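Whiteboard transcription, Tuesday session. T.W. wrote the structure tokens on the left side:
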């Protein structure tokens, strides 16, 4: 799955792997599919096809059933049996007219079949339909990780990425920081101005975080009026700098629905510039305590610590 919030699949170029023992078929498809927005990869036998599928993860596979040594059924079986390419849709190319073969191919996980000698127009539309379907599946998988109200990543995505970032830090000592944000007195916004006004605040704040963070950062809605920002390759000093900017920008915003009322945020940051042995849970707990210090200290402020020593950290002076 793509890890970009602004990912757009509309103009995505697909690659299609053709596994067929006939050179003629490859030549024919190269010539006749030239107009399609796809890159063709070619394999003349099943073993090579499986290797290319694993390595290049094409968007789709066209698979000949009738091949010497390893036939298409065997290829399908291996592909679907725990290979990293098991999600790639497969259209079977079959010279066999037996309905039983088609049933077996479908049972093994093929999404469609085309009978040889194939009609190129038919192959083309089936190819397009299968690619469209696979784009939709990708999009649904992505939406399952996006928060509906704000368009930021959701908690499930945060949990995945946070665990991955921690293991990167543990293994390679890459700097890592995380920030937790809690909008100040948010409940009273909802109570005073109504939930639509509250939602507008959440959406505007989400937009602000997205605008102010760097492309490599991972902005998430953590739950309710809480947000989180994972900052890979970022020392806590630099993370505090980024968060101070977000805090200042929010306090400066004016709100059409309630111009007399400022909105502020309290932020806790924790991070490190070297490999540390802290569990994802412990790290978050420490960040939460840091956030609580910002709340207790009077809100509308950023508190940052070094996650290993627990020492307070000041913002770097550099302009990010
Ligand atoms: Mg063949």
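and on the right, the sequence the group agreed on:
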């Amino acid at each position: 799955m793509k890890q970009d919030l602004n990912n757009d699949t509309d103009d995505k170029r697909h690659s299609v792997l053709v596994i067929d023992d006939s050179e003629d078929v490859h030549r024919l498809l190269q010539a006749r599919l030239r107009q399609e927005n796809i890159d063709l990869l070619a394999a003349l036998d099943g073993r090579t096809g499986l290797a290319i599928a694993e390595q290049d993860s094409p968007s789709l596979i066209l698979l000949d059933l009738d091949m010497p040594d390893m036939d298409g059924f065997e290829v399908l079986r291996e592909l679907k049996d725990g290979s990293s390419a098991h999600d790639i849709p497969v259209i079977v190319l079959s010279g066999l007219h037996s309905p039983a073969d088609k049933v077996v191919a479908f049972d093994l996980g093929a999404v469609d079949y085309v009978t040889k000698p194939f009609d190129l127009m038919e192959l083309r539309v089936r190819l397009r339909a299968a690619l469209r379907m696979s784009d939709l599946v990708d999009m649904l998988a992505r939406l399952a990780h996006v928060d509906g109200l704000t368009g930021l990543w959701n908690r499930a995505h945060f949990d995945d990425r946070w665990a991955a970032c921690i293991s990167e830090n543990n293994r390679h000592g890459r700097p890592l920081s995380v920030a937790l944000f809690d909008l100040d007195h948010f409940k009273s916004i909802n109570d005073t101005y109504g939930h639509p006004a509250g939602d507008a605040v959440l959406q505007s704040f989400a937009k602000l975080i997205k605008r102010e963070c760097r492309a490599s950062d991972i902005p998430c809605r953590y739950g309710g009026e809480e947000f989180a920002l994972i900052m890979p390759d970022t020392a806590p000093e630099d993370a505090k700098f980024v968060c101070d900017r977000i805090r200042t920008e929010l306090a400066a915003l004016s709100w059409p629905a309630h111009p007399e009322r400022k909105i502020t945020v309290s932020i806790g940051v924790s991070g490190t510039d070297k490999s540390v042995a802290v569990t994802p849970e412990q790290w978050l707990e420490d960040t939460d305590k840091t956030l609580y210090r910002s709340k207790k200290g009077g809100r509308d402020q950023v508190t940052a610590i070094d996650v290993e020593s627990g020492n307070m950290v000041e913002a770097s002076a550099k302009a990010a």
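Someone added at the bottom: Residues 20-22, 64, 66-67 surround magnesium ion (CB under 6 Å).
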